[in-house]
Every structure is written in C-alpha cells, then in structure tokens.
Inverse folding.
C-alpha cells in the first residue's frame, strides 16, 4: 500500500484528498509532454485564446502518441495510488486530460462533476489532478466535500456553459458561487509534483489563473476500478471515444481502456 490509511479514509469521506510530493520526479517529463501537446494538439483540443483573458488550453486522449504521457501513466505510482484509494485490485486507464492556464487567464473552470460527461458507471473511480507549477490557494481547484455521496447526477455543460446534452433529465447544478457559505469547500495551495485525488462524482471548479507570472499546468489522469461498466448517456460523451464498440453495461474492456494493474504476469 502506497497511500496511508488516513488519506484513503479522507478520500472516501470527502471525495477529494491532497497527496503531496508523490510525483516530483515526473514534473519535468510531463512538462516536456505538454509542450509537445500544445505544439501539436489532438482532435479533441479546446483552446480558449483571448487577448484580454489570456489562454486556457485543454486537450485529452493523447497518451498513445506522446511518450512522456504514456510513460507516466504506465510507469509512475499513479495507478497504484488509484488502486489504494478505490479499493480495487484492477486499475484501468480511462484517459488523460491536460489543462493549461497561462498567467492572467481569467477564464474559470465552472463547477461540475465528471461522471455525467463520461461513458462509465461505477463507484470505484479516481482522478489524479497533478500540478506542474506552484498553485496558490486563490487559483487552485476547489471541491465540495461529500458531494460524491449526494446520489445526484447534475447536468453537464461545456466550459463555455452550453449544455453537453440537449433536454437532459439530470438535475440542474445549484448556484455554488453565490452561496459558498452553505458548502464545505476544500482547496489546497500546491507545489509542483503535488496532486489532488477526487471521485468522478465530486463537484469541483476553479477560478482563472490569478498569477501574473506563473503558468498553471495540470496533468489529470482518470482511473477505473473493478466495478466500472460502460454507460450510454443522453448524447455524445466527453471524451467521445468514437471507435469504442461497447454496449451499455459492458465491462470497460478493449484497447481504449488498458489494464495498468495488475501487470500482466504479476
């Protein structure tokens, strides 16, 4: 076991926990990978570039073509950490997601939770949001403690606030920013190589990058456990996985979702 039991209990109670220093040796390789990614984006890139607001770059599902991403996902402790937190023997890679906010970028990451966007159901899941630059408390990702246990699925929106699924039956998201005092909001100042682990159902969001000089580069890896099953949603999911041929309720098998743990032959 890599993660202390106290951290595992915190993850399961709050839906988010900070993990400090586990990935310091991976900071420089992932920075190189992100530079390659930004120079040659993938088909799912979202690049919000405004001369007033700065640049907010996002891309995902590039691990098969960017060696630094692939090496991190298969050789770092990330999968073993996810195994501890999820309580799962099997760990599958779901996808990676890169988010870069340049200095002075005012564009926020709106409040949301991830599972309604995803083509997966199951309680055993984990995202690791790994920061590659120091992040102040004022610019960090925030979480609503315990929100993964609400039993609700909230309507997913794109980051530009348009609905991902038209006429969705999911619940409308409450106005968290206007009522922050009603919620137990978690957030941490972070150093390069620190990470926050959170559940796919944990509500989270982030302000813009309020630093005038420091980039906010983050590499998120998404992990699936033993109970993961393919889910058909009300519209095209994000990521869309256009080549996936699984049906609703199928196990998350196939080349899109490789098993990272246990390693073959171990």
């Amino acid at each position: 076991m890599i993660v202390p039991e106290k951290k595992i209990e915190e993850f399961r109670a709050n839906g988010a926990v900070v993990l400090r220093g586990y990935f310091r040796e991976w900071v420089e390789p992932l920075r190189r990978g992100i530079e390659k990614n930004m120079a040659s984006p993938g088909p799912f890139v979202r690049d919000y570039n405004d001369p007033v607001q700065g640049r907010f770059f996002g891309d995902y599902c590039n691990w098969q073509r960017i060696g630094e991403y692939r090496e991190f996902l298969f050789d770092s402790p990330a999968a073993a950490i996810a195994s501890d937190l999820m309580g799962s023997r099997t760990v599958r890679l779901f996808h990676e997601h890169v988010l870069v906010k340049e200095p002075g970028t005012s564009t926020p990451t709106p409040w949301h939770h991830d599972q309604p966007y995803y083509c997966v159901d199951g309680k055993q899941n984990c995202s690791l949001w790994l920061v590659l630059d120091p992040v102040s408390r004022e610019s960090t990702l925030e979480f609503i403690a315990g929100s993964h246990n609400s039993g609700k699925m909230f309507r997913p929106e794109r980051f530009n606030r348009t609905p991902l699924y038209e006429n969705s039956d999911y619940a409308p998201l409450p106005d968290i920013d206007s009522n922050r005092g009603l919620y137990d909001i978690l957030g941490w100042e972070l150093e390069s190589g620190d990470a926050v682990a959170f559940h796919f159902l944990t509500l989270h969001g982030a302000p813009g990058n309020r630093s005038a000089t420091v980039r906010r580069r983050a590499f998120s890896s998404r992990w699936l456990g033993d109970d993961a099953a393919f889910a058909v949603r009300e519209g095209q999911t994000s990521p869309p996985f256009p080549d996936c041929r699984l049906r609703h309720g199928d196990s998350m098998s196939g080349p899109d979702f490789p098993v990272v743990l246990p390693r073959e032959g171990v």
Residues 27-39 form the longest helix (13 residues).
